[in-house]
Design brief:
The chain has one domain (about 10-255, about 260-270). Helix content is about 30%, strand content about 20%. The protein has 8 helices and 9 strands. The chain has helices at about 80-95, 105-115, 115-120, 165-170, 175-180, 210-230, 245-250, 285-290, and strands spanning about 15-25, 45-55, 60-70, 120-130, 135-140, 150, 160, 185-190, 230.
Length: about 290
């Protein structure tokens, strides 16, 4: 594990922000596979994990590797993409990822930025908005998790849950501290490959405010389509603390949601085990060339 700055604790994050950014890692870049685990460490805000792929019969046919970066390790006032690059570069210099040939730490960071899609992909991006319990009403059917609702579709794009229940279940923060939190209910937008076509890494090139504004029309569309499945916020127009959620709600109900002009579409992801034909672009050659 790398040493990293923890800007917040889980119970005192800003009232809104980016909850998690999950970065897919090309297996050609991995040096120590043992650093990746099926689940994350609840005490860490940056985690290496893997997820096995299985067919409908339950047969294993592949493994994907990820580095998950949570809100506690992100400075919302700094460039999000640059922070991601810095974190990925640190994993090279602790030995989890392979070094780039003939490159020092600064050259590696530049190389990763210029060739991001050859080594990495934004696997998912989660925006969150925290509310006071009394300002929202859960809708829809109960799930197996307490005080949690999911929108339809897979993966669900919209989720609402009790932060107090979630943190108490993790049981690594004093319950007294958890009970003192002002904003105890979280609304979360989960943008992933299965429900979003706009996960290009350059969409994260800016601070939180800029990234949010870039994604605002898309989030407004998701909110328009799914909000009635999970939550009702009777006085959203009057909430003094939920500026960006009000902005999102106003755009969703304005009658016309703009096109996603500021967002780039998700690039094609390399397939590490694929043998590319003569008439195909080999998306694996850069990762082979740079690390062999």
């Amino acid at each position: 594990m790398i040493n990293y700055t923890r800007f917040f604790n889980e119970c005192d994050c800003p009232q809104e922000g980016i909850d998690t950014i999950s970065i897919w890692i090309h297996s050609n870049l991995i040096n120590r596979y043992e650093d990746f685990h099926p689940g994350g460490n609840i005490h860490e805000s940056i985690n290496c994990r893997f997820k096995d792929e299985k067919n409908r019969a339950g047969q294993f046919f592949g493994r994907n590797y990820f580095i998950d970066i949570q809100s506690e390790a992100l400075n919302p006032n700094a460039n999000i993409l640059e922070q991601i690059i810095y974190i990925l570069t640190r994993f090279v210099y602790v030995g989890t990822l392979k070094p780039i040939k003939n490159s020092d730490i600064n050259e590696t960071a530049i190389y990763f930025m210029n060739n991001f899609s050859s080594f990495f992909a934004v696997n998912s991006l989660d925006f969150y908005f925290d509310l006071k319990d009394e300002d929202c009403i859960l809708l829809g059917d109960e799930t197996k998790y307490p005080e949690t609702r999911y929108s339809s579709g897979y993966p669900s794009v919209l989720k609402i849950y009790s932060r107090t229940a979630r943190l108490k279940q993790k049981n690594h923060i004093s319950h007294e501290v958890i009970n003192r939190m002002e904003y105890k209910t979280r609304i979360e937008f989960h943008l992933a490959n299965g429900n979003c076509d706009f996960l290009h890494f350059q969409n994260l090139n800016g601070n939180y405010e800029l990234v949010f504004l870039n994604y605002l029309p898309l989030l407004a569309r998701k909110w328009f389509n799914h909000r009635r499945e999970v939550v009702k916020i009777p006085h959203v127009y009057k909430l003094p603390y939920a500026h960006h959620l009000r902005q999102l709600n106003n755009l969703a109900l304005a009658g016309h949601i703009p096109q996603y002009r500021e967002l780039l579409k998700t690039p094609i992801r390399p397939k590490p085990d694929k043998k590319y034909g003569k008439n195909e672009v080999d998306l694996n050659w850069i990762s082979h060339f740079a690390t062999d």
